[in-house]
Specification:
The protein folds into four domains: 6-173, Rossmann fold (3-Layer(aba) Sandwich); 179-241, Helicase, Ruva Protein, domain 3; 246-297 and 324-395, no CATH class; 409-494, DnaA, N-terminal domain (GMP Synthetase, Chain A, domain 3, 2-Layer Sandwich). The strands form two sheets. Strands 2-3-4-1-5 form a five-stranded parallel sheet. A three-stranded mixed sheet has the order 6-7-8, with helices on one face. β6 and β7 (449-453) form a beta hairpin. It is built from 26 helices and eight strands. The chain is of the alpha/beta class and 511 residues long. Bound molecules: zinc ion (ZN). Zinc ion (ZN) binds next to α4.
Length: 511
């Protein structure tokens, strides 16, 4: 039996099957009914919200001979032919075809009317990844489009689409899908699969997938394959998600409030032993602290909490004990940490340092009830010293993977010689990063620093945001932790035929 991932299998074939995008879908259907379809659209929204699914249905509907209420009829020659869609609908992934040549080829082919159907539809996924030259080439076509062509640009980052392009597209914003819609859709999919799940398990999946139907389905998919034939429970879902159990979060919050560094350590150790990384622990903690703040403002048993009544009561009790100020301090500490851990979710030391810093900070604040410990209090001094030792110990690298040793000159030389191979390897390991490394050259500066000169200024800006990903991949490949310096391209290098000067680029992108 061939296996198809749930999110592929249940990709909606009709607008009526699209979950949670009522406004966009209604407008598009009305355009088809009234014959007011335009030639360029921009679909914006976070991943997994249905942009590509809607684009594909749209592409079939504009080509359908007898659309029914704006839906493809499923019966005409176009709808029934398996080949028709392939001759009229083209999907381009801009993440890997972002150059000016890719777009020129596409535009060249677009000039010819479609062999079947009414319109050639080009769906450009991740459109923000197009190079400046590619956008320029596309712009000319958008200004004078052949009547039989329709473009649908889909993007998660609309601010990176030049305003000149945006102004020629009709824009639709795809919202995060409401939790109750995700839950209902999951229940329907499961029953179609002949599987069952507890209500709290579905609610949990809807919550962690954060409005992305594709993520929700892929979590469910994993549950179904791990626990084949069993009724899916909350425990199973949490296990698949690598979730931290609720008790650990209660314990961690208590430990932080009590200033008990040993208890913090044991929660972190426990999470690591059961295979949960620090990134997951951190994001669960942010979500728990949010719940605690809700519990404090709304009181126990609040429907907004999405938990059982006894759990709501416990949350309310802990929230009251902590108080609003401490909860806000904690959530801001963990939210900052969450940003940092994005690059290395396994960095337990960072997590521990964040906890110990919070404890140290809390000890320095005057307590509301008890008189503040004087800085000369020996008990306070001893406690502070102990926390400092723990921070040092954590920072010194309790992690299983020790940091790679610094390079010597030979290592830098080796990295330079292997640079082209390294960039090729990045393509398979981290494709978006590879896109920004394209055409970059590497050199060496004094002190064994690896200098990477980017081909485009835009690449340099993007690489700077991902510098830790780059150094991690370098360390992995060459076994040394290189110091990397990024350089913007020399002015002459930017004036290549397919690139705009940076000033103009910056102006377009508002940077
Ligand atoms: Zn049809």
């Amino acid at each position: 039996m061939s296996y198809t991932a749930l999110y592929r299998k249940y990709r909606p074939r009709l607008f009526s099957g699209v979950v949670g995008q009522t406004a966009a879908v209604k407008t598009i259907r009305n355009q088809i009914i009234s014959g007011r379809v335009t030639h360029a659209y921009l679909f914006c929204g976070t991943r997994g919200t249905g942009k590509t699914s809607v684009a594909k249905i749209f592409a079939r509907a504009v080509n359908c001979e007898r659309p029914d209420g704006g839906e493809p009829c499923g019966e005409c020659a176009f709808c029934r032919s398996a080949d028709a869609a392939q001759l009229a609908v083209f999907e381009i992934d801009a993440a890997s075809n972002n150059g000016v040549d890719n777009i020129r080829d596409l535009i060249g082919a677009a000039a010819y009317p479609p062999a079947v159907g009414r319109r050639k539809v080009y769906i450009i996924d991740e459109a923000h990844m197009l190079s400046a030259g590619a956008f320029n080439a596309l712009l000319k076509t958008l200004e004078e489009p052949p009547p039989h062509v329709m473009f649908i640009l889909a993007t998660t980052e609309p601010h990176k689409i030049p305003p000149t392009i945006q102004s020629r597209c009709q824009r639709f914003d795809f919202r995060r899908i409401p939790r109750e819609d995700v839950t209902a859709a999951l229940a329907a999919y499961l029953s179609a699969e002949g599987a069952e799940a507890d209500a709290d398990a579905l609610a949990y999946v809807a919550r962690v997938s954060d409005g992305a139907m594709r993520d929700a389905l892929s979590i469910m998919d994993q549950c179904l394959s791990y626990y084949f034939g069993e009724r899916i429970t909350l425990e199973m879902v949490r296990d698949v998600c690598g979730a931290v159990d609720g008790e650990s979060l209660f314990a961690l919050t208590d430990a932080l409030l009590a200033g008990d560094a040993d208890a913090v350590q044991s929660v972190v150790d426990g999470a690591a032993e059961s295979g949960k990384d620090a990134g997951r622990l951190c994001s669960e903690m942010v979500s728990r602290l949010r719940d605690l703040i809700v519990a404090l403002t709304a009181g126990g048993g609040s429907a907004a909490l999405d938990v059982s009544a006894p759990e709501a009561a416990r949350l309310a009790e802990q929230a009251k004990k902590a108080g609003k100020d401490e909860l806000i301090r904690m959530i801001s500490a963990f939210a900052d940490l969450q940003n940092t851990l994005r690059f290395d979710p396994n960095d337990r030391a960072l997590f521990e340092v964040c906890c110990f810093k919070y404890i140290a900070g809390r000890d320095e604040r005057p307590a509301a009830q008890a008189p503040a410990a004087a800085p000369t209090d020996p008990a306070f001094e001893a406690r502070l010293a102990r926390i400092e030792r723990m921070i040092e110990k954590a920072a010194a690298g309790k992690q299983p993977a020790r940091p790679a040793p610094p390079p010597d000159r030979g290592d830098v030389k080796r990295a330079l010689e292997g640079w082209a191979d390294f960039v090729r390897s990045v393509r398979t390991e981290n494709a978006p990063l590879a896109g920004f490394l394209d055409g970059a050259s590497a050199g060496e500066s004094d002190g064994g620093i690896l200098v990477v000169t980017c081909q485009r200024s835009y690449d340099e800006i993007e690489l700077r945001k991902r510098l830790s990903e780059l150094t991690a991949l370098l360390a992995k490949r060459f076994g040394r932790s290189f110091t990397v310096r990024l350089n913007a391209p020399k002015p002459s290098a930017q004036k290549r035929a397919d690139e705009m000067p940076f000033d103009e680029f910056a102006r377009l992108f508002g940077e």
